[in-house]
């Protein structure tokens, strides 16, 4: 099936009333959780995942995807109006976005963010439509050794991109790998780290842990600084960018889109890296780097375009290789497997309606988001002022229902609560949970591919270096580690991530 | 217990489902979980989904498939053994977790002969030996010759240690005197990806996933393990034709519940499956997957399990299948 036929099929799938409605629900919810500080897409998707099991696979995926990229739009609203990143990848947007708001240019900043995101979303979906079939064809050249190296790269990227010390990030990733080992070994059937508890024989459910750390953990952390949170909301005046604004933002939007499209595909990097990179790039290219941080529209348009482009293209490795580059993508894979759909190279030939329907729905979703975010920005601004004491009991209830309904097991609620407390502890000591979550998913996959590679090569580990694809991937991973150990680059990383805190 | 009932009951079912313990009389009064022992898309999983759909249609209650993949089905078998025998959890799978794992896996957390209640063998099929187009041998006799000339060099993939693919490969090794390296995969789809990409040279597995790629010439079929050639693969010779007279191995897919499951429920499920296999559309559907319906009684299935275990035990004792 060619790309054009695919898009036609996608149009007929995405425009059915049900799918359109769920796409709208997805982006609406996504915007809402993006706007609300302390409730991110990972927590939302893990809470809502069990509720999608009753939907058809395409509808479920369309809605879950909508929550994810919708939150990229919503996150910028809070960042600009309140100086609070509603979502991790909007951190950079606070730097110039909120400054613009303080200068009475809130509306123009919001417009720059939304228009940048929409352009990036459009290019990102087009990029998937063109490149995913190519990559799915190439996917067969990825053997166990190449998969293993890709996973290593993903884990290292996520460690390097985490704020705080590299050692902490490494420790978190290691803990994630160990947690991923809990349960029955896939090759031999040996029970590992189960302490004789039958509940642990099937392993720790990733959704339960993600809900605990990101859902409940965030609630606890937010309650901790509830009094500090009462920030003021900047008023929104005109939403129309001036001619001068347009001239200044076109370049950053195009460049940011390029950065985001490329980095989104890289496993482990995700949306956060792309917004930081786009900001750094704009600052470097600008003739007035001193204006950055004081309300430069370039500093809003570029990173916002980049994070939304990455939010689209990070679906590519998930769909074509079955390799989740981020926690959100791992949740999507979990959702698809429940539906009887195995993500991987075969998805294009076996589930063309699902694949193309998702792509077309993403573009429709981006269009919906443009309208949802610009004219309705006042509504979202009101949502921010909903007192947290109405919100957090609701989140607690939903996390509990979500955790329970995965296996209908009360044990999972206890487990979720335990990881909620652990998540709070991680925040308190400044340990980012992202590497842990990613390692929890990628660790068992890495083990499976490592063991298979060595079985196939009769125990000869040099295959990782003799396969050009695997070698290239490992070299990139090694460069990343070296770069972070070099003091100069380390300073750049720390500066970039400092702003995130 | 299962996932979809929450939606079915509007999200508030959380409070109700804890009670459980329904009597056989009103079964099924709530959705039933059908465990699939392999990832989505493999033959075993396809059969699980077919059975879940036919039971849903028969009983007017949702039969929801849950994939519990890993350790050649031992994870799924363990989960079933730990489930309440109330008729709301059953397992439909290839024979490994229901039989062979007992002798192939040293650390199996359950005993399939005492912890399960047999329901029926749904269908059986041949196993198919395929080669990647990059493989050093493209026919069965060439494979034997190559393996003899290069001892320890031949990798052959199977959908999990102790699956019939693994057992058949060990039997071929035993009877031809060649050494094969058995590489376990997590079900058929990843094994098929690797053989399509040429990362592994040979695979022995149920045929349904491989049929479309054989037609496209992307992989080569070397042999079927059944006594006679298959209607779906008329040009593929049997192992018996190619130097191992009398060789016959079929793989089967069956349904079991936890030990102590009410007999009425076992019989209700067995009768429904049997009635379905007698319909023309069922026979057409199964034939397209390279399967032949069986639908025997629970007692007959107990015999199938015993025979399977005995045959694998012989291989283990001969040192041809290493228990892990």
Structural features, described:
The complex is a heterodimer of chains A (501) and B (324). Helices cover 74% and strands 1% of the residues of chain A. Chain A is globular. Chain A contains 23 helices and two strands. Chain A has a two-stranded antiparallel sheet with strand order 1-2. Chain A has helices spanning 3-14, 17-35, 41-52, 57-82, 91-102, 106-138, 144-160, 166-181, 206-224, 243-265, 270-285, 298-313, 315-321, 327-338, 347-350, 352-373, 377-384, 388-407, 410-428, 434-456, 463-466, 468-485, 487-498; strands at residues 183-184, 191-192. By secondary structure, chain A is mainly α. Chain B has 324 residues and is α/β, with parallel strands linked by helices. Chain B has 13 helices and eleven strands. Chain B has helices at residues 5-8, 14-17, 43-59, 74-81, 101-104, 112-115, 140-149, 164-176, 188-196, 211-215, 263-277, 280-288, 298-317, and strands at residues 32-36, 63-67, 89-94, 116-126, 128-132, 155-158, 181-184, 202-205, 219-224, 250-258, 291-293. In chain B, the strands form two sheets. In chain B, strands 2-1-3-10-4-11 form a six-stranded mixed sheet, with helices on both faces. Chain B has a five-stranded mixed sheet with strand order 7-6-8-5-9. Chain B is globular and about 65 Å long. The interface between A and B is large, with 46 and 51 residues. Chain A: InterPro entries: DUF112_TM (IPR002823).
List its salient traits.
heterodimer; A: 501 residues; mainly alpha; two-stranded antiparallel ribbon; 2 strands; B: 324 residues; alpha/beta; D-Maltodextrin-Binding Protein, domain 2; 6-stranded mixed sheet; 11 strands; 38% helix; 19% strand; disordered N terminus
